[in-house]
């Protein structure tokens, strides 16, 4: 595990118009060294793909293929995310005005002392404030 991956980066791998050199370099890094994500990540990723299908951005066949692609990546799902919700995640959400979902990524990066890969502006701001290193996505 080299870093914490959030859904904004994972979904960018799925859509050509969101792919940047930085985002694609992170995909290479995941393929080589793996990454870690909170327990909510698979649900969030699937939801993003389902919404893309509903909006006509991808077909059902493409959504299933992309879901398989994400599922096959060496991303370890943290098994302590739920146990951190009330003790560590909630205060981070409050302090940084984050959703509970975004706070879970920040909590994981802090707990594991790993950098964070995100394209989410609020999460970037919170990570900077909390002293969590960010990986380039541009």
Describe the model.
The chain has 138 residues and is mainly α. It is 63% helix and 7% strand. The protein has a single domain (4-130), classed as 3-Layer(aba) Sandwich (Rossmann fold), CATH 3.40.50. It has helices spanning 7-14, 21-33, 41-54, 60-72, 81-96, 100-112, 121-130, and strands at 4-5, 35-37, 75-77, 116-117. The chain has a two-stranded parallel sheet with strand order 1-4. Strands 2-3 form a two-stranded parallel ribbon. Helix 3 (41-54) runs antiparallel to helix 4. The longest helix has 16 residues, at 81-96. The radius of gyration is 14 Å and the shape is globular. The two termini are 22 Å apart.
Short description:
The chain is mainly α. It has helices spanning 7-14, 21-33, 41-54, 60-72, 81-96, 100-112, 121-130, and strands at residues 4-5, 35-37, 75-77, 116-117. It has one domain: Rossmann fold (3-Layer(aba) Sandwich), CATH 3.40.50.
């Amino acid at each position: 595990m080299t870093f914490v991956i959030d859904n904004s980066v994972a979904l960018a791998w799925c859509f050509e118009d969101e792919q940047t050199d930085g985002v694609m370099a992170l995909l290479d890094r995941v393929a080589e060294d793996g990454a870690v994500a909170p327990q909510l990540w698979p649900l969030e990723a699937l939801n993003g793909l389902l919404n893309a299908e509903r909006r006509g951005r991808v077909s059902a066949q493409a959504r299933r293929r992309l879901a398989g692609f994400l599922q096959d990546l060496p991303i370890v799902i943290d098994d302590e995310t739920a146990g951190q919700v009330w003790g560590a995640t909630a205060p981070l959400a409050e302090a940084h005005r984050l959703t509970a979902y975004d706070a879970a990524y920040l909590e994981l990066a802090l707990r594991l002392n790993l950098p964070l890969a995100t394209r989410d502006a609020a999460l970037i701001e919170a990570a900077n404030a909390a002293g969590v290193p960010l990986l380039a996505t541009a």
